[in-house]
Each structure stands twice: as structure tokens, then as C-alpha cells.
Amino acid sequence: LLRERLPADAPALSPGEIVDPSGRVVGRHPGVAGFTLGQRKGIGVALGQPVYVQRTDVGKRLVVIGPQEGTLRQRIEAEEVTWVGRELTPGEELSGRAQIRAHGSTTPARVRALTPETVEVTLEAPVSAVASGQVLVVYGEDDEEVLLSAWISHSE
Fold first, then answer.
1. Do 81 and 90 touch, CB atoms closer than 8 A?
2. pLDDT digits (tens, 9 = 90+) for 41-57
3. pLDDT at 30
4. Which conformational region is residue 8 in: left (phi greater than 0), alpha (psi within -120 to 50 degrees), or beta?
5. Which CATH superfamily is domain 2-66 in?
6. Are 149 and 136 in contact (CB under 8 A)?
7. Are 15 and 32 in contact (CB under 8 A)?
8. What is the pLDDT of residues 103-125, one digit of tens each?
9. Which of 15, 24, 33 is CA-nearest to residue 66?
10. Which residues touch 51 (CB under 8 Å, ≥6 apart)?
């Protein structure tokens, strides 16, 4: 689908290197667009232990693979926030429970408004494979009331 929608010379569709966390080249790939954070199957590289996509860099055409621990993220930035009820002003914080995937569990989190449309979320415990473009939903501490939803733009 991406190959049909992106220009043929798009960096995400250009071949590049697969590297381990130290930067050692361990393979090649046909395009970063074919990889997702946390992916384990279909990487095309065998290192004698399970490896996961830890991150991609479209500009450098790199796919970084390594142990599953490298997919864990605890800090998230999200944009295009839709507030439900009270909107936070920049610098204000609230506690809640964050959900990353539609059927994923919630985890305690601290939310800080960076701008009216952008938040920083710090998770109490790291979550695997938080990727840009996923939807973040924050519930009240009772896990019932939706406080906000937003698009994840960055995680670490």
C-alpha cells in the first residue's frame, strides 16, 4: 500500500542497512517502510537470539534491531490533543491511566501539557513498541472517564 502511495524515490522505500544497537551492520533491507517498532517476524536477520525492531531512521534509511528491552518506552510526546472536559494549560499536570493500543491495558501515567495541542506523558512503567502515529488515550485514575486522546509523535 505504501509503495502505491509514496513516490518511488521516497527515502522510506529506499534500501538501507539493518544495524544492532552498537551500529554494527548485520543486514540490509528493501525500505524502512516495511518495518514497525517492536516487530520480530520478517526482519530477515538471524543473530542466534530473538531480535526486535527497536527504532527506524527514515533519513538515514536505518533499521535498528536488538533485544526486546530496547523497544520499551516510558516517555511519550503526543499532539493534536482532543481534551474531554477540562483542558490543561501549558505546564499544568494531571494523573491518569494511559492506553496505547486499542485493546491494550492501561498504565498509571503523569500528563503535562506542553501547549494546548501537545502533551508529554510519563508512564509509571515502560511499555513496549510505542510508535509514532499510534493513538494515545488517557483515562481518569478510575479507568472510566476519558480525559484526552492524541496522536503519538515521539517516544523514548
1. no
2. 999 998 899 999 999 99
3. 92
4. alpha
5. Adenine nucleotide alpha hydrolases-like domains (2.30.30.280)
6. yes
7. no
8. 889 999 999 999 999 999 999 99
9. 24
10. 40, 43, 45, 65, 66, 67
